[in-house]
C-alpha cells in the first residue's frame, strides 16, 4: 500500500523547522519550556536557535481508566489540574476511578521531576515571556494545564509552539494561550505520531542529556549538539571494475562504527562531484552511514547520450558495484542501501525514469518492499530552493536509519 511520507523526520528536525516561526519573539527574551518527554528534543532546537534558556514543566495526561490513551484531563507541577468533566461522564469514569488515576499520574510526575532535575530548582518564570513546546497536540489538555501552572508561577505570557495539531486547533486553543504557533494542521489527524517518520519514545537519558547540555555554554568552534561527537569519516578514492579493462571512479567515506553503506547511483549527467550529491552524502555520514559516490558510466561512455538512458546498463553497473562492496574487507559486513537521482534512481529501482509525481507513485506501488513517496514542498528539479536539499538529506537519513537491516 502506497504511503506518503510524514511531515517531519523526527522531533529535532521538527524543532529546527519550527524555530524560524518563533524568531519574532526573540526581543522578548523568552524562556523556552518543554513538556517532557516528547517536547524536549523539539524545544532544545528552538532554544538553541533563539539563544534562549531551556527548562521543562512536568505535566501528565489523565487517561480514562479503561482507555488510557483517551485523555479526560491533565495535571501539572504545583498541583494544577484540568479535568474535562464532559469526557469523564462520557467514558463512565467514577470519582473513585478518577482519583486513583490522578494519584498514579501524580506519583509518576514527581518521579520524573526528581529524575530530570535532581536538586536543581526550576528556572523562575515570574514576569517572563514563555514559549511552551511539545511535539504536537491532540486534545490540548496537557498543554492547557501546563499554561495554567506557568501563569500560577507568574509568567507574563505563554505562547504554545507545536509542529503539528488537528485542523482548527490553533483557533480552539486561542483562549488558553496568548498565542498559538503551529506549523501544520493536516486533515486526517488521528494522532501526533502519524506525522513523524521517527516517533520513537524519547528516553529519560536523552531528556537529561539535552537539559544538562543546555546549562553548559558551547565551546568555541564546536557544534552544540550533545548527541553528535563522532570523529570525521575516513575518506578514500576507489576504483571499481565492472568488466575487464574498465574502471569506475568512486569516493568512499566511512564514519566510525558505520550503521550501513549507502551507495549513490548517479545518472543523466550527475556525477560523484555534484555538490548536491556530496551535500546529501555528508548528511548521511553525520547520521552514521558510510557512503560510496561513484559514476555509473565512464567518461567516454557519457559522450554517447543514449547510454545515460540505458537503464539496463546502469542497473548492471550498480550490481557490479554492489558485489564489489560485498567483497571489500571494510564494507562486507555492512547492510547496503541505494540513493539514486534521475536515471540513477531508475537503475536503483530497475524501472523507468519518470518525471511526474503521479507516475512515480504508480511505479512505487509496484514495488514489493517497504517504500514511501516523499514530497519536498516548493522544490524544483535540482532542489535549488533554500533548505530543499537539506530536507532531502534529512528524509534520506531517516529512511535508511529506519529500514537498514
List the helices and strands and how they pair.
Elements: E1 3-4, H1 11-18, E2 31-34, H2 39-50, E3 54-56, E4 59-64, E5 67-76, E6 80-83, H3 85-90, H4 95-117, E7 129-133, H5 141-152, E8 157-164, H6 169-173, E9 179-184, H7 204-214, E10 234-243, E11 246-254, E12 261-266, H8 275-286, E13 290-295, H9 299-302, H10 305-308, H11 311-327, E14 336-341, H12 343-349, H13 357-365, E15 372-373, H14 388-403
Parallel strand pairs: 1-15, 2-3, 2-7, 7-8, 8-9, 12-13, 12-14
Antiparallel strand pairs: 4-5, 5-6, 10-11, 11-13
Helix pairs in contact: 1-2, 2-7, 4-7, 8-14, 11-12
| Computed CA radius of gyration, to the nearest angstrom | 25 Å
Low-confidence stretches: 1-5, 216-223, 350-356
Instruction: Report the structural category.
Output: alpha/beta
Silhouette: elongated
Q: Residue share in helices? A: 25-40%
